[in-house]
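Holo model, adenosine-5'-triphosphate. Inputs:
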Amino acid sequence: MAAHDDKLKAVISHAKEYGFVFPSSEIYDGLSAAYDYGQLGVELKNNIKNYWWTAMTRMHQNIVGIDASIFMHPTTWKASGHVDAFNDPLIDNKDSKKRYRADVLLEEYMAKSEAKITKEIEKAKNKFGDAFNEEQFRATNPNVLRAQEKINAVEARMKAALEASDLVALKQLIEDCEIADPETGSRNWTDVRQFNLMFKTELGAVSGDAGIIYLRPETAQGIFVNFLNVQKTGRMKLPFGIAQIGKAFRNEIIARQFIFRMREFEQMEMQYFVKPGTEMEWYNYWKDARIQWHKALGLGNENYKFHDHIKLAHYANAACDIEFDFPMGFKELEGIHSRTDFDLKKHEEFSGKKLRFFDPETNESYVPYVVETSVGLDRMFLAVLSSSFVEEKLEDGSDRTVLRIPAGLAPVKVAVLPLVKKDGLPEKAKEVVDLLKLDFNLQYDDKDAIGRRYRRQDAIGTPLCVTIDNASLEDNCVTIRHRDSMKQERIPIAQLHEAVREVTGLNQYFK
Ligand code: ATP
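Output:
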């Protein structure tokens, strides 16, 4: 089994064992690709939301939030293009009966060639050391050139086929590349078909087509239809943004890889309304701002990269993804899209209402352009969890499993631990609990030896443990133990609140 499968499995089982993520309705054997967040998962999720919401709304005076309904008037989805165009090309393997996304099969095929190139480069780097010039190597090495040519050719044909919605050409490309079912190796494929990803349901008393309603496949449309409400009531001037966190639903053809791809998930989206003609400037601004937001967490700068879209969505004039090195490899974590005036114009057209901004500087009304940032909350959760999960060997030869979750996001910020369960120590510890509990999520634990209690806190990513011992009764000091360094320091209880805030506050990410 590949190492990345092992890593993902270890993360999934750790997440379950410690109350982060459970399979949905597990007592009925679960529902595929549906998960429940447990007692620690919900805390981590809320902290990620809070970090995003703070970065968007508090750090930008011109960005405000909303919380729109999941159900929307069905014409919304006609106008947005989702009824006609929110499709994935699917293909079935006739032997294994497994279903795949045709574009994903091709992307995985290209990724294999990409991996070959990376390997050649690594080999050469080791051989030539400091003298190595990657650019020159890429331009001259025959193996790299061959692999790159192959990628370019497949990419060009895939782009042309997707843009023309030419499903026959897509199938032909899969055959020409001799792509086999990744699980069984069979090349016995059906034709490629389009599959709409929106979930449909029916509205209460109305029957037939008139009652059909969709579960929103993205939160963005709730922002667009409220553009004027917010602009007018908030007296907003361009450029300004509307942020929203909420559930979205997509009937994904294959949903797997834990919480990476689910049919019900949560998005954190921000639509930034700008003057037409300035959108590329803002697109670049947000690319930069968003990568900084991610990197500030300290999960490792090498874990992020930008990926420009091959095929632009029907609404975009520029688009890229921020990819993260998940246990399954680099995959999309966030999308940044320059959506032009597509959505607002379409809503004008379908609703007959004007969705314009009156620019007092030029005395003109126009439909603003939009730059969108859209990050999956669940994917962000997986990025944090998987990259912070470490099994380490300590100097004394023992093992410890630790979640090095960025302290500002950690579900439990501090554990309060009386060294023994007698001599007035629990009472003193309760005082410490009272001092901290309003501002910090904490756990009180007085069971087992102190070493075992530390390990339990390491396993759930608690950045700080506070130990109360007999001396604490005399000197009103406690010992703070840091999760990552395992270093200990003794400080007065009077300074504890500030010390915990310093280590676990969000301000450290906004320098
Ligand atoms: P993908 O190519 O992986 O299907 P997408 O390009 O369709 O994703 P967007 O429409 O740009 O995704 O959605 C914005 C963000 O929402 C994504 O970057 C991702 O983090 C998240 N997201 C999208 N689909 C899912 C899903 N099925 N499960 C969890 N998160 C998702």
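The longest strand covers residues 329-340. The mean pLDDT is 94.
Archived with the compound record.
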